[in-house]
Amino acid sequence: MKAIITSIVFLLFAACSFVQTTAKGKTAQKHKQKIYYNVGSFTCGLAPASYHGKWGYIDTNGREVIKCKYSYVSEFNHGKALVAMDESSQTEGIIDTTGKEIVPCSYCFVTKDHACRKVNTPDFTKDYIVTQNQKFGKLFNNGTVAFPCIYSSLSEYENGFAIAQYYNIYGLINETGEVKVPFDYRRMHRVSKDGLVAVLIKQNEAYRWGFIDTNGTEIIHFKYEDVYSFSEGLAAVKENSKWGYINSEGKKVIDN
Questions:
Q1: pLDDT digits over 84-94, tens only?
Q2: Reported pTM
Q3: Neighbours of 173 (CB within 10 A)
Q4: First to last CA, the chain
Q5: pLDDT digits (tens, 9 = 90+) for 86-123
Q6: What is the pLDDT of residues 188-216, one digit of tens each?
Q7: How far is residue 114 from each of residues 80, 90, 121, 194, 240, measured CA to CA in Å?
Q8: Of the four listed, 10, 44, 179, 229, which is most buried by Cβ atoms within 10 Å?
């Protein structure tokens, strides 16, 4: 959910007040103004508010309940919000509605195209793909580390697996980061619903594609010049400069 930040100066009266003695000795209640130059919408009972260039959160009474100390923040969703202490560092963290830090501000939460989200909040109901020092890792939804940021690239999870790049080679890992297919391949396509993975190896000074299962067992021999992943039981393959389709047993069923 994107944080909707207004550019209108918004006057809020802080909950704090002080007592002033009048000339007649009577007391009068006087409210102290606090000016929030930017605010956002209320979600989970809290709204983002900016004071002197820093962001925090106010409640529906206008009280600042999470201190304005962040460079930018998102709106709350499922009781969590994305925050950053230093915008220039592009590192983010996650807090709950009490301001408690669930994830420290030392990661970049990434999108499908591996760009930092920066205020575009991640799905707080799922685990998080993150980067740190230009390496990819994963956090569980509760903020604990599933596996550290050690990979050069990391795909989105499909059918329980992700393709990980370690330097210039590729392997397959599961949701907890356990390596299921060793890092032996030059390229790797997504895991299909059939449980087959297209992988590229160097064979006799030539590069050839074949298919393995999620245990790393060779299912379809490495003989293709190019391939696509399996979809609806078929995969497009290129052999001897001609394209055709094979089934999950490696038999050609459509020949162009």
A1: 998 777 789 99
A2: 0.79
A3: 23
A4: 46
A5: 877 778 999 999 999 999 999 998 865 555 545 457 88
A6: 999 999 899 999 999 888 999 999 999 99
A7: 22, 13, 14, 26, 35
A8: 229
Q: How far apart are CA 209 and CA 244, in angstroms?
A: 14
Tell which residue, 140, 171, 141, 142, has the closest CA to residue 154: 171
Residue type present at position 147: F
Alpha-carbon span 77 to 97, nearest angstrom: 10
Q: Cα-flanking dihedrals φ and ψ of residue 89, to 5°? A: -85, -15
**How far is the C-alpha of 173 from the C-alpha of 155, rounded, in Å?**
10
Assign 3-class secondary structure to 61-110: CCCEEEEEEECEECCCECCEEEEECCHHHCCEEEEECCCCEEEEEEEEEE
Mapping DSSP to helix (H, G, I), strand (E, B) and coil, where does residue 215 land?
A: coil
Q: What is the pLDDT of residues 37-87, one digit of tens each?
A: 899 999 999 999 999 999 999 999 999 999 999 999 999 999 999 999 987
Strands 10-21 and 27-36: antiparallel
d(C-alpha 115, C-alpha 244), whole Å: 35
Q: Are 109 and 91 in contact (CB under 8 A)?
A: no
